[in-house]
Amino acid sequence: MRSKALRVAAALSSTMLAGCALLPREPAPAPAAVPADFPEGYYREALAQGKPVFRVDPAESLVVIEVRRSGSLARLGHDHVVAGHEVGGYVAPDEGRADLYVALARMQVDEPALRKEAGFDTQPGESDIEGTRSNMLEKVLEADKFPFALIQVSGAKAKERKTTLAVAITLHGHMRTLQVPAEIEADAEKMSVAGRLAFNQSDFGITPYSLLGGAIAVQNRVDLRFHIIARLSGAG
């Protein structure tokens, strides 16, 4: 192992990580554009009824997960940053609901700029990054069985300019509901939702990656930050 947005809005979360191992490069599998059970029809109906619906802008939205090393030989590994640049979904403010998804196979590992933002002072090599990505998708997240992270926001509480979102995350076949602090800015055309949270991989039935009996491993806890931009959709 070498390396490794007063109404409601949208929130985000999703996924976990892996350790490193030198593996051959393989093309990432191409997931379906939208999860089979994603409630897109709900938002189309809301639009048809003249209700405001905001669509997530994948080009401006980002989810970043930081995974840190552990174990007695942690010095031989790397901390990692995994990023989702292709967040999809909708927000229906009048309905107090948002649904989003992240295709796990599209996530990127250890981009230099994001590692710098996370405070990591090393940069894994290309082969190490590929090994980490393969382990994350195949061994940890089992992305072939569970290709998406699904996020549903079902309520928001606001107090003194601070908003807490009720977020149900489905990952690796498990769903958990979290209370997520968020900063929300919105006008008639655009919404911005940003925040941070932390959770344990094991909460979603995921076993953190490890080698040598845990001497080289990743921590169970992961830190996630998100910035979601959604724009008003047109009818039709």
* DSSP summary, beta strand count: 12
How many strands, what sense, and barrel or not for the largest sheet? 8 strands, antiparallel, barrel
Radius of gyration: 18 Å
The largest sheet has its strands arranged as 1-4-5-7-8-9-10-12
Q: Which residues sit in consecutive blocks of at least 5 with pLDDT less than 50?
A: 1-32
Query: How helix-rich are the residues, as a percent range?
Result: 10-25%
Average pLDDT confidence is 83
User: Strand content of the residues, in percent?
Assistant: 35-45%
Structural class: mainly beta
Q: What gross morphology would you assign?
A: elongated
What is the overall number of helices? 3
The topology string of helices and strands comes to: HEEEEEEHHEEEEEE
Please give the alpha-carbon distance between the first and last residues. 51 Å
Set down the secondary structure blueprint.
Blueprint: H1 40-48, E1 54-56, E2 62-70, E3 80-84, E4 88-92, E5 97-103, E6 108-109, H2 112-118, H3 126-140, E7 148-159, E8 162-171, E9 174-186, E10 190-200, E11 210-211, E12 216-232
Antiparallel strand pairs: 1-4, 1-12, 2-3, 2-12, 3-6, 4-5, 5-7, 7-8, 8-9, 9-10, 10-12, 11-12
